[in-house]
Recover the amino acids of this structure.
């Protein structure tokens, strides 16, 4: 099969609607835009959220709180999730991303203590909770901060 042999599945494509081509077409004269008004004009773009002059929703809703744009985004992983690795493995950011446990590391990964760990692992990440560190060391592993 070659590129010139390919064709669209019947019924998957439609002819373009030809507007403003006479009243016999059904889309003549006003070209489906009705009579006058903002939507009938050329270049009538209205920005997203525009409500015809009414106070827009994003301005009617009260604003609360504070969003710190300088805050570090830390990705958390539970100790129980590390059970998938073999005994004696070295677990770091790259290994966690390759295994699909973490999608992206952002500003660092922190291990939390939820779950149980029975395997001896060397874990090298940005941060640990105190209880997670104890669980890793109790299983015979090491918790190293990088």
């Amino acid at each position: 099969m070659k590129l010139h042999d390919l064709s669209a599945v019947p019924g998957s494509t439609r002819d373009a609607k030809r507007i403003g081509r006479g009243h016999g077409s059904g889309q003549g004269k006003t070209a489906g835009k009705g009579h006058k008004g903002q939507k009938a004009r050329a270049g009538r773009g209205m920005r997203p959220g525009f409500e015809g002059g009414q106070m827009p929703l994003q301005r009617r809703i009260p604003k609360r709180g504070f969003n710190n744009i300088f805050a570090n985004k830390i990705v958390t992983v539970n100790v129980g999730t590390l059970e998938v690795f073999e005994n004696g493995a070295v677990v770091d950011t790259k290994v966690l991303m390759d295994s699909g446990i973490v999608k992206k590391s952002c500003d660092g990964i922190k291990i939390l203590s939820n779950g149980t760990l029975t395997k001896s692992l060397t874990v090298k990440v940005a941060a640990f909770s105190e209880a997670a560190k104890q669980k890793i060391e109790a299983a015979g592993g090491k918790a190293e901060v990088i």
Q: What stands out?
A: The longest helix spans residues 130-138. Residues 73 and 115 are 23 Å apart (CA to CA). Helices lie at 57-60, 93-98, 130-138. The longest strand covers residues 75-78.
